Amino acid sequence: MKQEHEKIGRIAAVRKNSFIILWENRELHAKVRGSFYEKAADQWPVVGDYVSFVHNSAGDSVIQSVVERKNLLQRPDQAKTGVMQYMVSNVDYCFIVTALNEDYSFNRIARYVSVALQGGAVPVVILTKADLCVDVEKFVREVQTVSDRVRVHAVSALRGTGMEALAQYLTPGVTVCLMGSSGAGKSTLINTLAGEEVMQTSTVRASDSTGRHTTTHRQLIQMSNGVSVIDTPGMREIGMARAEEGIDHTFSDILELESRCKFRNCRHASEPSCAVKEALADGTLSAKRWNLYLSLTAENSDYAKKKKAISKLAKAYKSEKKG
Predict the structure, then answer these.
(1) 86, 229, 251, 323: most buried, per Cβ within 10 A?
(2) What residue ranges do the domains of the chain occupy?
(3) Vertex 165: Cα angle to 163 and 166 (nearest 5)
(4) Which long-range contacts (CB under 8 A, 24 or more apart) does 222-226 make?
């Protein structure tokens, strides 16, 4: 039970073992209590978490516990095999920001959508820099095929076009998380939504249409209209791990086809009455979408195998030390 002197605030930034808590329109520096060092990594505070803390006006406040989360977005840490990176929590909408230039990648968008759905957030793809694209609707239609759960909007933050469509997501109390590559226009989008310059922007290199990493860490910004916006560092790649449900939700059409196959263990190869093969043959299911599904599913499964192998080695090492 929360003690009388404990307060409830929200994590706005994390830098190693230091935290920034938003509380009563103030930013407080904080550390976690010692018992956190015995907890699993996914139980440590992340940006977006509500936490119970003891306020210290003369120094660092102390985080006592993490309030139960509504959801948690995560991805595999590319630099550490078998380790998850817990990104943000308590997110309502995940704005997947992709510029309509060389940054655009259907494959990457599908990955972001799967991560958002796995985490329980609504994926909203924002196609930025629409003023630089000659066939915007073509890309909108393509992204709409990623999943029946995805929402798509093409905008030009600099010119203000298409921005009115985003108002439906920006109601008081809502939390929006922005993800995308460097140079995709996340910071410009946030500034436009806020109506003021709250984020530093950087120029895009003309040679390859990519930008520098303006955002170096995840941070939560409380806008004047009561909306919380979480910005994240640019990610050119995002892996698949522990994303079974997210992938299933993204490719629900393929799962529906698989349910119509004659055999429950159909491998969609030489089996008769295979609904997947029939859909591929008549064009109902594109080979591009099928291959992407196979690729993401295999990657997700490969992570699980690596995690299991690492766990087995760790147990063997502990047994050997005890012996």
Answers:
(1) 251
(2) 6-66, 72-231, 244-322
(3) 70
(4) 222/12, 222/22, 222/25, 223/170, 223/193, 223/194, 223/198, 224/194, 224/195, 225/170, 225/172, 226/171, 226/172, 226/173
In the predicted structure, residue 4 carries a pLDDT above the cut 70: no
Which runs of E-coded beta strand occur in 224-315? Answer: 228-231
The candidate with the shortest Cα–Cα distance to 186, out of 94, 123, 254, is: 94
Q: What is the mean pLDDT of the chain?
A: 85
pLDDT band at 82 (very low <50, low <70, confident <90, very high): low
Where residue 309 falls among pLDDT bands split at 50, 70, 90?
Answer: low
The three-class DSSP label of residue 230 is strand
Coil, strand, or helix at residue 63? strand
Rounded to two decimals, what is the model's pTM? 0.83
CATH superfamily of 244-322: Probable gtpase engc; domain 3 (1.10.40.50)
Q: Which residues, 6+ apart, have CB-to-CB distance to 36 below 8 Å?
A: 43, 44, 63
Tokens, residue 18: 């230091």
CATH topology of domain 6-66: OB fold (Dihydrolipoamide Acetyltransferase, E2P) (2.40.50)
pLDDT at position 181 = 81
Instruction: Tell me how far apart the alpha carbons of residues 148 and 111 are, in angstroms, rounded to a whole number.
Output: 15
CATH number for 72-231: choose from 3.30.499.10, 3.40.1280.10, 3.40.50.300, 2.10.109.10: 3.40.50.300
Q: Which residue has the tokens 């119509």?
A: 260
d(CA 118, CA 239): 13
